[in-house]
Amino acid sequence: MKMRNCFLGASVRKFFLTIWLLGTASIVAYAFWHNDLVYSLPTPVPNNYHPPKVGDSLSVFTQVKRKTNKPLFLHFFNPDCPCSRFNIQHFKQLVNSYHSQLEFAIVVLTNKPNYTANDIADKFNLDLPVYFDSSIAKNCGVISTPQAVLVNTNQSLYYRGNYNTTRYCTNKQTEYARMAIDSLLANQKKPVFGSLALTSYGCSIPSCKK
Question: Does the pLDDT at position 75 exceed 90?
Fold first, then answer.
């Protein structure tokens, strides 16, 4: 009888352990699914949103200190945005590839005042100017992070959009920001992209919500 009770006890413990493991696995799977779903949806567009169009003049050259007359690449970044963090390595690759042909700057968009320029520079390990000026985003029509904005030497908007369709920017076929840079450097009038490049995804600014 005692052996039977021990066997039943072990079976019950194994049953509840299995249920617990399945429940935990289900919760983790749901969290990943929900996260992917949320960040695959377009960022909500604010009311009365009227962004500049490609070719429109911008005043960012009065807001961003420049050292040369090269085209300007603005990286809009929120340190609390998962999509922004996933994108850091790709942005660094762009800087390393095009630093001799473009000027780069990072625009930080967050409602948390405890971040400093040194904090951001440490995250990227890059010697780039860092701005905490949300009016730059408004000027460029940026409503989410991460976003890329490319301004030509005539102070006109050349590209505002996403870096890639994948959160880690690993799809070589949809490296939109890189394609825009190559188009500008090849003196093409303007890049032509579909909605996947131009519709804002990622985290709303500055609260990092979808």
Answer: yes
Q: What is the pLDDT of residue 189?
A: 87
DSSP 67: S
Q: Which two tokens stand for residue 49?
A: 């949103």
Residues 6+ apart with CB under 8 A from 45: 143, 200
For position 99, what pLDDT does the model report?
96
The first and second tokens of residue 43, run together, are 């960022």
pLDDT reported for residue 183: 97
**Inter-residue contact 79 to 123 (CB < 8 Å):** yes
CATH of 60-204, one of 1.10.260.40, 3.30.420.40, 3.40.30.10, 3.90.850.10: 3.40.30.10
Q: Domain ranges in the chain?
A: 1-39, 60-204
CA 71 from chain center: how many Å? 21
Query: Judging by DSSP bridges, how do beta strands 144-145 and 203-204 pair with one another?
Result: antiparallel
Backbone angles phi, psi at 204, to 5 degrees: -65, 150
Res. 121 pLDDT band, cuts 50 70 90: very high
How far apart are the C-alpha atoms of 123 and 136, rounded to whole Å? Answer: 21
